[in-house]
Structures are given as structure tokens and as C-alpha cells.
Amino acid sequence: MTIAWWKQSTVYQIYPKSFNDTTGNGIGDIPGIIEKLDYLNKLGIDVIWLSPVYDSPQEDNGYDIRNYRLIDELFGSMEDMEKLLEEAHKRDIKVVMDLVVNHTSDEHPWFVESKSSKDNSYRDYYIWLDGKANGEPPTNWGSIFSGSAWKYDEPTDQYYLHLFAEKQPDLNWENPELRADIYDMMNFWMDKGIVGFRMDVINFISKDYPLEDGKVNEGDKYGDPGPYFLNGPRIHEFLQEMHQEVLKGRDVMTVGEMPGAAPEDAKAYTDPENEELDMIFTFEHMSLDQHGGDKWNLKPLDLRELKENFEKWQTSLHGVGWNSLYWNNHDQPRIVSRFGDDQEYREKSAKMLATCLHMMQGTPYIYQGEELGMTNVRFASLEDYQDIETLNMLKEKQELAWSTDRIMDAIYTKGRDNARTPMQWDTSSHAGFTSGTPWLKVNENHRTINAEESLNNPKSIFYYYQKMIQLRKDMDVISKGSFHLLMRESEKVFAYEREGDQESLIVLCNFSGDEVELDSDVVERIQGASVLISNEDGSLGRGVLCPYEGSVYKV
Ligand code: NOJ
């Protein structure tokens, strides 16, 4: 059986605002992406996932859309977008766009109409409810971006739901007219030549009615709305309908962003027989360094938990569905700072982390700058932070009497601006990102960490990623083999086997700055085996792993 092309592809995520600015206004743009297509082609990626470039007031950097069929002037024009598609296709690169349809901007004409009166024909495009008899919001829910999830509208004396910011009202997917409008818009983009969508929080779209108060967890002010919107009762029906109306018969790639999806959910979403999506983004592995559901409530990672989590996902989807593989995106801190060492072992740990992820089953995603080993940032002044989630959290945690040190530590460790600092192209004053003033400060370390340096250094992280991308195409075992965890009890080593019909791989990754002895059965297995790829050239085959070593053996 042939393997679907997206199973051997690697996707590169571009966050346009921070990628490359050609106008000098300090904001990245579409012509800036076109300018860097040869760079991406050199890396060898197959698909670009473009974070939103649609017309938007930019309250949440484009995840608040005002017009789905217009390109935001900040990023260029529709002609620029068409040119990007054309130029990408010339280089055999496919483009996937972000689809944000759990909510729109409150400036979207649908919402403007909806808000205008209770009997407007668009009223039902959003979720409006009366307050409680005591005048409180309809439920006690907290928004994901802090504060209440409901906003009162005085003229119509009702509340609308916003799971994210106030300016991001949730759409009402119960309404068939809304759904038809969305499918129409998706077809508009597919007809322009994109190959698919990354679907923003798509497992949030089916709400479980009636909406009622959620549980208030200890230390929280608001109730948890999760049970009322995660993987809701009509979600599969909606996705199947979307498949029929838009995706069926087209050669596409779809990935649903799905916080709160477990492997059983993922199977249902991605089993080709169900005709829903090709793969999802899961979140469990990104929540192991926090206490409970609060990402700001930090906890050190226990590597054994990370290994078991991957094992669970790798084995349960094998032969049924499919998954995406990621360490980074525009919402996550930089992986080399998070699970690696962004100081002494920056290059080594960045390569080790790439090894660990890219040898698994799934479609890998590289987030801009990951291929350079870009790190988290520490702005001394809070004024330099731009992200709405961070700024809202600051207010909320101050109210909860968190100390300034604790808040700053949380921002340095988890804040989304870590991922959003401009791409580091060279050593010049704004890292070659803009000739003007960047919308978000560049990381000072661009003087040593940048694309120019990487391209000139044959041993760079960039070329290591290039090799990883090629290996996935060359070796079926990477997409097809089964997964077996090795050295389960080790707190420092993440080791696994990928077993195929013809060949197997043993992947050994040291997540620590110490030398670590390998278990004897592993040493036996790799005796005489050839090294497929490694970030270490001195000490292979000694029965120990060097600090942050990542090596793959073909057995
Ligand atoms: C998930 C996106 O990745 C994030 O950046 C955004 O803020 C929320 N969804 C709301 O759209």
C-alpha cells in the first residue's frame, strides 16, 4: 500500500508577524515569506503551515478574524498570497492555512449584525444567553485568557460566550447556516490552491447544552468550562459534514488542534474510515511540566512521564489513525530552553530533541527558528511583553497574590512571546528581520544564533534537521514501524525502538547533562549496528551516552 504523502512530509510553521519584514514597518509580511522560500527549500520541508494572515484587528495576532476572505494589510494583499502559492508550488512546497472557526473577531460583520438586536438574522451565529436571576453571567466559567468567559451586552441585555478574549466571540455551530458559510469560505481557499488547513481548537466547536456551572478548582476564581466544550456531543457529526462539503475528493492534509483529546478521541478523529481529519495536535506531552490545568503553575518535568505519554500515543494510534509530532509552535516556549539546555549544550540538546521527536510515527512540525536552536527570551521590562494571554494572566495572578518573582518565572518559562520573538536571520541590529522597529523585541542572542551562521556551518542544527527530514522520506520504518519503549525506568534517557518488516531502528536520547550508562540489553542490541544519525561523533558504541547525546542505530 502506498503511504500518504503527508506521512512522509515535514511541515514548517510560519508565524508571519515574526518571520521576515520587507516593508520596514516592523511586522513580517507575505513578500517576506516569498523571499525566504529558497531557505525553506534548502531545509527540505514539504509543507508550510501559515498562521493566520486574514484581515484582523490583531487582538490575538490574527486568531481573531474580521474577514476570512481578505488578507490583512499588515501582511500584504491577495495578490501577494496568490504569488506565495505560486512560488511555493514551483519549489514543490505545499501551503496549509490556519482555519479559525471556533470564534471570530467581534469586528466580524456577522458579530456586528448579531449584536445589533435579538431578532437579527445573525443573532444565532453566536452563543447568547440571559444572565442568572441574580444578575450574574449565565455560568461561572473562566475564559482561557483569564476573567469570565461571558461578556454582558447592555442594549440587548444578554451575555455572549468567549472562551478566549472578549474580542473573540464563540460561533454557534448548532446553526446550519453558519456551518454552510464556513464550508463555503473553506472551499474558496481550497480553490485558490492551498492543500489543507490547520484547524484552530477545532474540538471546541460543539458545545454541550444546556450550559451549566463548572467545577471551581482550588485556587481558581472561576468554574472550569471544559466538560461543556471539549470533544462535544456533535463534534464528529460536524467534522464529517465538513469533510463531505469541503475535503472529500481533494488531495488535502488536515490537522486539528485539539487540547483535551485523548488517544481514543484521536483514533476517532483520524481513522480514515470515519472521514474526518488526517491528524491532530495533542497537548498531553506539553502539560507535564505544570500542576493541573494551569500552565503557569510550574513543575519540573519527570522524563518518565514524557516517555510514557509518547508511548501511549505512539502505540494506540499505530495502524489506525495518525498524529502530528511537535515540540514547538507559536503558543509554546522554545523546546531547547524547556526540555534541553539553552546554554552549554544548546546545539547538542537541540539536535537530541530533534532526534527524539523526528524518529517517531507521525508528521513532524518544525516551528520557525527551531531549526536554528532559537531560545526563550527574558525581557527585563514587562512593557516589552505583547501577548494578550500573558498580559491577562499577569493581572489575574496579581489579584491572586502571586509574588512578582513567581509571575516573572512563569512568563520566562511559559509565556507565548518566547516563541514569537522575530526570526533570527543574521547578526545585524534587528537580526535581519526588519529595517524598522520590530513589533516585539528580538532576542539579544541573535548575534550568535542566526540563520546566516547556521548555513555557513556544516555541523549546524539546520543541517541536522535537513538530514532528519530526508531520512523520513528514505526510510519507511520511520512512518510505519511499531514503537517499543526501552529503558523505561531511566530518568535521563529516552530510548525506543522502531520495528519494521525489513529493518529496525534504536533511538537513544540523553535528556541530561550527565554521561549515562545504557542498559546491557540495549548495549547488546546496538553492538555492530550502523549509526544512522547522531549529534555525537566521538564516543559512539561505548555503552554510555554522552551529555545530551541523540543517536539512532539501524539494527
Ligand atoms: C489556539 C492558537 O494556537 C492560539 O494562538 C490562539 O490564541 C487560540 N487558539 C485562540 O484562537
Element layout with pairings:
Layout: E1 11-14, H1 30-35, H2 37-43, E2 47-50, E3 54-55, E4 67-71, H3 78-90, E5 94-99, H4 109-116, E6 128-129, E7 150-153, E8 158-161, H5 176-192, E9 196-199, H6 235-247, E10 253-257, H7 263-270, E11 279-281, H8 303-317, E12 324-325, H9 335-338, H10 346-358, E13 363-367, H11 388-399, H12 404-414, H13 417-420, H14 451-456, H15 461-474, H16 476-480, E14 482-486, E15 493-499, E16 504-510, E17 516-517, H17 520-526, E18 530-534, E19 544-545, E20 550-554
Parallel strand pairs: 1-2, 1-13, 2-5, 5-9, 9-10, 10-11, 12-13
Antiparallel strand pairs: 3-4, 6-8, 7-8, 14-15, 15-16, 16-20, 17-19, 18-20
Helix pairs in contact: 5-6, 7-8, 10-15
The structure holds 1-deoxynojirimycin.
1-deoxynojirimycin is lined by residues 60, 63, 100, 164, 200-201, 257, 330-331.
Describe this structure in words.
The chain is of the alpha/beta class and 555 residues long. It folds into three domains: 9-104 and 176-204 and 235-421 and 450-466, Glycosidases (TIM Barrel); 109-161, Oligo-1,6-glucosidase, domain 2, CATH 3.90.400; 479-554, Immunoglobulin-like, CATH 2.60.40.1180. It has helices at 30-35, 37-43, 78-90, 109-116, 176-192, 235-247, 263-270, 303-317, 335-338, 346-358, 388-399, 404-414, 417-420, 451-456, 461-474, 476-480, 520-526, and strands at 11-14, 47-50, 54-55, 67-71, 94-99, 128-129, 150-153, 158-161, 196-199, 253-257, 279-281, 324-325, 363-367, 482-486, 493-499, 504-510, 516-517, 530-534, 544-545, 550-554. Helix 5 packs parallel to helix 6, helix 7 packs parallel to helix 8 and helix 10 packs parallel to helix 15 (461-474). The chain binds 1-deoxynojirimycin.
